[in-house]
Amino acid sequence: MMDQVSGGQARFSMPLLGWYELNRRDLPWRRSRNPYHIWVSEVMLQQTRVDTVIPYYHRFIDRFPTIEALSEAEEDELLKLWEGLGYYSRARNLQTAVREVREQYGSRVPDDPASFGSLKGVGPYTAGAVLSIAYNKPEPAVDGNVLRVLSRFFLIEDDIMKSGTRKRMEQIARELIPDGRAGDFNQALMELGAIVCTPKSPNCTGCPVAEHCEGRQAGKQAVLPVKTKAKPPRPESRAALFIAGTGEREGQFLIRQRPAEGLLARMWELPHLELSAEAVKASTGAEEDGAQLELERVGRLFAAEQGLAVAELSPSLRAEHVFSHIRWDMQVYTGRLRSVELPGPEYRWISSDELDTYPFPNIFVRILGELQ
Ligand code: SF4
Fold this sequence. Notes:
By secondary structure, the protein is an alpha+beta fold. The chain is built from 16 helices and seven strands. A four-stranded mixed β-sheet has the order 4-1-6-5, with helices on both faces. The chain has a three-stranded antiparallel β-sheet with strand order 3-2-7, with no helix packed on it. Strand 5 and strand 6 form a beta hairpin. Helix 2 packs across helix 12, helix 3 packs across helix 4 and helix 3 packs antiparallel against helix 9 (124-135). The longest helix is centred in the last third of the chain and has 19 residues, at 288-306. It is elongated and about 75 Å long. Iron/sulfur cluster (SF4) is lined by residues 149, 152-153, 196-197, 202-204, 207, 209-210, 213, 215-216, 221.
C-alpha cells in the first residue's frame, strides 16, 4: 500500500489542492466555521445531491441554528423540515447525537475521533468529514466519490463494496492528507469526484491529476471502480386509501402515523397495505366485473387487516417510490369510512391546512399534492 501511494502527495494531493483553490464551488456550508452547521450539511449530503440539499440546509439552520435549538425540537417539526430528503433516520439520529453533545460535552461538538465517532449515526465518513472540515483534523473522509477517484487514480481493481477495500482506501486517503490541510484536501477530493471524475463520463482532459492517473493511463477510467451490483429493489404492490370525511368531518381526510420502529418510523401517511400476489393477479383481469371484484377485495383486506370498514371505493391515481431495498407500486383508492370509530390512536382526521405540520414520506407528498 505504501508503495502504491508513495509520492502520492506530490503526484495527487498538491495539484488537487491547487485546483480546488481556484475551482471550489461556493456552497453555503463552506461559508461556515461552525462545527454543528458543517455536521448538519454532511448528514444531509449523504445519499443526496448538493443542489437538493441547499434549500433544506438553509431552512434547517434558520430554524435550528444551534445545538440547543435542535435538541429541543419536536420530532414532527424536525421530520417536516427533512420531508423529501429521505433516509429519515438520519434526522432522528442527528437529534439524538446533538442531545448527547449538549449533555456530555457542554454543547461543543467533540473534536476527537473516538468521542465524535461514538455518537449516534456518526460513521467513519461523517466523522472524517466533520473533524477535518471543522477542526482540520487529519482524518480521511471516504464516501462513494472518493472511492471512485482513488480506484481510478491508483488503478485499484478491488471491489469497493467490500469492507476490506474501504479500509484500505481509508488508509490511502489518510496518507494523502498534506500537513495542516486536512479540511481543504478532503473537500477537494470530494469536489473532484463530484464535478470532474464523475461516475459515467470522467472529464480526464480537464482533470488536475490526469498526468499521473494510472486508471486513465490504462484506459480503465470508465470501468473503475469495480463494484458488485446491489440486488434490485423487491417490487411490492400496495393499495392506499384517501378517505374523505363527511358530516362534521367534511373537508378533512384520514391519515395515520407509522410505528416507532422500522421504515419511515413515526412519519405520517395514508392508510395502505400490501396486496398479495394473488390479489394483484386477480385484479389485473380485463373483464368488467374484474374491476368490481378488485374493489371488493381491497375493501375486505382493509377491514380484515387494519379494521377499516370502507365503502364506495373507487380507483384514483397510481404512484411509485423506490427505496434501497423495496419498490412500492401504489394504487390509491378514494372512498369513505362506514364507521365513525377509528381503529386506533395512530389514526387522525386532518384538513389540508394542517398538512404543514405533519411529516409525510415523499410518495404521500406527491399523492396528496395531486389529490388536494
Ligand atoms: S484523470 Fe480521469 S480517471 Fe483519473 S482522476 Fe482524473 S478524471 Fe478521474
